[in-house]
Amino acid sequence: MSMNVGSSDSSKEAAPMMEINTTPLIDVMLVLIIMMIITIPPQTHAVKLNMPIPNAAPPPPVEPVVVQVDIDFDGTVLWNAVPVSGRQELETKIKEIVAQPIQPEFHVRPNKLVQYKSVAMVMASAQRLGVTKLGIVGNEQFVK
Question: Is residue 101 in some structural domain?
Answer without folding.
Answer: yes
